[in-house]
Design brief:
alpha/beta; two-stranded antiparallel sheet; Rossmann fold; 6 helices; homotetramer; eight-stranded mixed sheet
């Protein structure tokens, strides 16, 4: 099976800004992007389903299951256009990461995206004293305006690089001539962090020239934690390894 | 090597119901589906062998080895037609899961399947007090009749989604326009559970309008446990890691 | 890169017997097959190199490195013809196992192989009191002559099936109409076992109607243990995980 | 996405020597090759980006992110021509290793490379008393001149073979008729080792007939250690497993 890009709606764009927020460290990027989708009343225009995602469906409030997926939502605020990439998962393999990132850039190219913001967390392993947002770019000319918006730059940070789609979009967008920025909220890393998300959101609002409330971020973070607590509980309810030999590769829920 | 679908027998169907029960949580789905194959005297019509399954043969009572595989058995009860998907394993990789699920849906499409039931367990990590069957669907209109048959629906449950083929068939069948339901027997999860299987079987009989005995489920569960105990024993008899460097990726039995 | 089959020598065969002995439980199969290659003065006719094997070279006595590989050696004893499949490794992935097995069967088909013996160990996790060889077949008619040669058959044993190429060759040879037998020497499993190998060799000699000495098996096992001890030592000398982040997927020796 | 070979500059070569030094045991090979690139003022002529590398960008001193990659740098010293293969990572899968090695050999073939040196470490698990460089070759005729340059050869060493690109280049270059040597600095293995690198560099200078300072090797090793310490710190700041279920395959930094 190949990755499928389902266009749900035809919309015209001049040169939108693409914002990516998929699950990652502290779920900071996901919190911000999901929040933007809701606050900007963005409309879902694309669904991506892919064998590179886990083989899994999510069951919604109504008992209806849907494949895990990535989605692109579109919002127009005054004369500003935004495409927001959100989703349940990133890829399960390195090769899949590269493929999905390329595919997102194909879409970006098609819609004439002029700028990409990828959102993530920067884990430091302990409580964060001061709200802080670190940046990385794929072109040096992007740094100055970011600094003015309050983004921190430290040489060679993050030392471990940026892993996953937030990093790949920066690296691969160079080949397409699309400027791209990664904003990383400094976060403990070991918890879902609405505070880190707030920091990123504030900076992003300044950069995009938009304004949205931040109140619901805490609520959203709590909901995510509940989902994750459920997952944890279910995992404890799996067959112990010695009873699951014949399906050891995956923990089947259904 | 590509996945191979071997048609063993040509049979005509009007619009059969496909029932999936492959290994998973508590082996609930497998117990029910294997049971149905036997009780309905279903006939094997298709074998699926695939490099996405473990590289392994199963040795039968007679000492004859056969590749691990998935199988589709067909049964006709009065004017009702059933295709039952059973097997030794699910795929070993995410990509393989998607491929096998698509392939099963190709077969479903070819045979004009009008409805899919996937069967599984819902692990809760402790003893189950009350027989209970949870449901998920790929279309909201399917919920009401399920509730009437005693299936429980709780918002966002299972929280971890449904992993493996039971989930994927629901999610991917949407694209084919085939309604699909997942029935999950609530089960401790850490043991093979004939009680959970009985719950699912009862609900399924109500939904399908058929009747089969449930007596042999306990026996079947005991047999599965014996097989798994053997596996466990053999695993303890492997080369320790430091002596198996040159074949560390797999534990070879033969 | 694709798997490469290098034919080193053209030889004519009427209908040879293929014997497989790659690394596995107790290295029983490898011990016997390597021994046969030497005792029968078999000639190497084919080398198989493949991206499904570990990315590694073996350094010989002379300091010359060669890719890890599988090899087919040919021997003629009176009017009997043997092809012996030996090698350093089995595949590193399930998909690779299926591909290599199919490729070996392509070769078997080309050379008109009339019978396949795959050799392995049957690990029981404790000292073996009595020399014993278990069997599995891909056709019931093969059992009787095996029993006469002293091979044991027990219903559903090995309970875990036969994993790796020894199993797959049996299962996939059915599709080609080639009869195939797996001989498994009962072995503790946690050590390289020349005693288990002797048992298999004796049975095999009876079945093939040939005679070779067994003396060198102990010596061969000791050599293998030395190699493995070296591997163990080198592994302990790797970068600790926290210093090897950038090459964590493999332990690089070179 | 396919592996991409980006030619940055067209340069003419008669028959250069290819030197490989990617991350590995004690980072010995990487230390030496990076050092040579700087000391010989080599010019980057090729960049390789590949889905077989981790899905990751590296952030430089200036805050600019770039995809992880392999690079080939070219240097001319008098009438000598060198191509030096350096980079951030080796492949993440066995199949990827073979593909990248083949691709490097395609480039070697195109530039008429007459000789390959691959550089690595030989981990012994304890402090190294005496500077020592072990060798392996892909053709016996290469051994004598190496011995004269001080390279040690011991039968069947390294016992575990040579894993990764340093080994594969030797093994696969045979098929192309390119002589290749692997030089392994004896090293504790559990630390980044500038001393082991010095040993390799000295031998290599003798073999290549060039001279470069060794002073900066210690400095370079310290820098690498800092980067790795950062990585370690960031890893400790990740979501704990039970909070990262939905992105468990990778630890996302961005």
């Amino acid at each position: 099976m190949k990755t499928i890009v389902k266009k749900l709606k035809d919309m015209e764009f001049k040169s939108p800004i693409l914002i990516e927020g998929l699950p990652g460290i502290g779920h900071v990027g996901k919190l911000v992007a999901d929040h933007l989708v809701e606050e900007l009343k963005a409309e879902k225009i694309i669904e991506i389903i892919s064998p590179h995602f886990p083989p899994q469906v999510i069951v919604g409030e109504d008992g209806v299951a849907r494949l895990v997926r990535n989605e692109i939502h579109a919002a127009k605020v005054d004369d500003k256009e935004f495409l927001i990439l959100v989703g349940d998962f990133q890829s399960t393999t390195p090769e899949g990461h590269y493929e999905i990132a390329e595919l997102v850039l194909d879409i970006a190219h098609e819609y004439n995206v002029k700028m990409i913001y990828t959102l993530g967390g920067y884990g430091i392993g302990h409580i964060v004293e001061k709200e802080e947002v670190m940046g990385a770019v794929n072109d040096p000319s992007l740094i100055e305006p970011l600094k003015e918006a309050g983004v921190e730059f430290r040489p060679n940070e993050p030392g471990g690089g940026i892993v996953g789609i937030s990093g790949l979009l920066l690296g691969l967008a160079v080949e397409r001539g699309i400027p791209a920025v990664c904003l990383m909220g400094v976060t403990p890393g070991y918890m879902i962090d609405p505070k880190g998300a707030k920091g990123v959101l504030k900076v992003l609002m300044r950069l995009l020239g938009i304004e949205v409330g931040t109140g619901k971020l805490d609520e959203r973070a709590k909901e995510m934690e509940k989902v994750i607590a459920k997952l944890r509980e279910m995992e404890r309810a799996q067959l112990p390894p010695e009873l699951s030999t014949r399906d050891e590769e995956l923990r089947y829920i259904g």
